[in-house]
Amino acid sequence: MMLVDGQSQDTVAALDRGLLYGDGLFETIRFVGGNAPLWARHMQRLAHGCERLRLPAPDPVLLWREALAVTQGIVDAVLRITLTRGIGARGYAMPAVPHVTRIVAAFPLPEIDATAYRDGVRLHLCETRLAEQPLLAGIKHLNRLEQVLARAEWSDPAIAEGVLCDPHGNAISATAANLFAVIGDVPVTPRVHRCGVAGVLRAELLAALPQAQVRDLPLAECLVAGELFLCSSVRGILPVQAVGDRVFAPGPVARAMQAHWRGLGFTWEQA
Amino acid sequence: MMLVDGQSQDTVAALDRGLLYGDGLFETIRFVGGNAPLWARHMQRLAHGCERLRLPAPDPVLLWREALAVTQGIVDAVLRITLTRGIGARGYAMPAVPHVTRIVAAFPLPEIDATAYRDGVRLHLCETRLAEQPLLAGIKHLNRLEQVLARAEWSDPAIAEGVLCDPHGNAISATAANLFAVIGDVPVTPRVHRCGVAGVLRAELLAALPQAQVRDLPLAECLVAGELFLCSSVRGILPVQAVGDRVFAPGPVARAMQAHWRGLGFTWEQA
């Protein structure tokens, strides 16, 4: 089910700036049994994104009401909230008074193979590099062609995700998940201030792992890490089994974070 | 008037990948008296963009027919063609068989002050830098948040455009136009293989100026050029009068290119 500006419909204006320029933001939020354990963090990131893009922030109470309406009857749901700068005069200039378009849509959670949580997933090492744009880094904006191109690098269904690097060869993230490496005993996740998205589950894990470091993570260092795992607010914690030829085993930090994930109320996956 | 996939309508699916990810391309084409003098170059760039983004290229004959239909009755029209990867399963992966969404829309040409062509325009020097992404450079894709942010840097209506640099301090373009500088006697336009858009009028001018150089153009060099002008397939040739405090005068190359522009059939502006 889908609401556009509160109305039950499934279309938007063809001249919406979300389509013309990718001028907007989105959130993808997992619901389980009518609740969204990471809702507050999603709202925090969305508000931050609105500030960065100079979009008027939506009322979270209104979003929550619409989210409940569209997810109703779906036990395990993925909610997508999209906000755009709406319709304005032609051209890049922002309208003086933007009329934000608000799309709230729910989908059943895609099936995820339980062995992925137990044994880990295989990753492709992407040739696509993330460009460095500090003005857009961290936020979940609608300009996602880099991710589309990176995801098109493999079609083998046995490969679940890809590792994306910045132009200097630092590992940044997967195409639709953040990355943690355990170096020695220290969990490390890449900085996302020049490229990448500041994932909501990443923020949750950083709060749960006070010893974790947020720093540059050269790919070479990442590939010799003791453990590697992905986190996504839709898919949870996925240990990495392999990046190309390099093999990993699920480790204690990934297992602890899977337990943390389940503790949040996401009971579906069993590692 | 607007056609979406050949139908007279003004909406698209809210789950179109053009809106979800900016997954598509566009062209903005000037029509004058039922003709588009740069049509062939626009079609060439669009086909090249489709190849780069792995989109099936549309039939130019079909596009031409739709363009004539929507511009009918508008003497001076701007046509926007938007192609997106349509609707697919959720996620960044490209659908195996994409159903491209095709939007063909016409607008009356916005009024442009004739003194801009005679005396030149004032430019803002943008703080926003264009990120370097060779995989997307040159093509006119839908990921345009950088241009939106750059254009938001000024609101003074006396300033017509902004100069955008790459992260190394090379001048690249304006927010919605390409840039030529005349250094000594040589017209120079920046390379657009790491960022920027390969403008259709830029290509036309390069063909008309065999002595022109396409190379890196450090901003410092650009600011001491003998002449500076912008080119846009909608607005034509705009001499630059000032970039911030630095003052320029319209020069002979800009005047020659304005004559070339008029020679193409764009008779509206008189420099």
Topology (SSEs and partners):
The structure is a homodimer of 271-residue chains.
Chain A lengths: L1 E3 L2 E2 L2 E3 L3 H5 L2 E9 L6 H15 L6 H12 L4 E9 L16 E8 L5 H6 L1 E9 L15 H7 L7 E7 L5 E4 L3 E6 L2 E5 L9 H9 L4 E3 L3 H5 L3 E6 L3 E8 L2 E2 L4 H12 L8
Parallel strand pairs in A: 7-8, 7-14, 11-12
Antiparallel strand pairs in A: 1-2, 1-6, 4-5, 5-6, 8-9, 10-11, 10-13, 13-14, 14-15
What does this protein structure show overall?
Helix content of chain A is 26%, strand content 31%. Chain A has 2 domains: 2-108, Aminotransferase class 4, branched-chain amino acid transferase, N-terminal domain (D-amino Acid Aminotransferase, Chain A, domain 1, 2-Layer Sandwich); 114-263, D-amino Acid Aminotransferase, subunit A, domain 2 (D-amino Acid Aminotransferase, Chain A, domain 2). In chain A, strand 8 and strand 9 (171-174) form a beta hairpin. Chain A has helices at residues 17-21, 39-53, 60-71, 114-119, 145-151, 200-208, 219-223, 252-263, and strands at residues 2-4, 7-8, 11-13, 24-32, 76-84, 101-108, 121-129, 159-165, 171-174, 178-183, 186-190, 213-215, 227-232, 236-243, 246-247. Chain A is of the alpha+beta class and 271 residues long. In chain A, strands 7, 8, 9, 10, 11, 12, 13, 14 and 15 form a 9-stranded mixed β-sheet that branches. In chain A, strands 2-1-6-5-4 form a 5-stranded antiparallel β-sheet. The mean pLDDT of chain A is 96. Chains A and B meet through strand 3, helix 1, strand 5, strand 6 and helix 5 of A and strand 3, helix 1, strand 5, strand 6 and helix 5 of B.
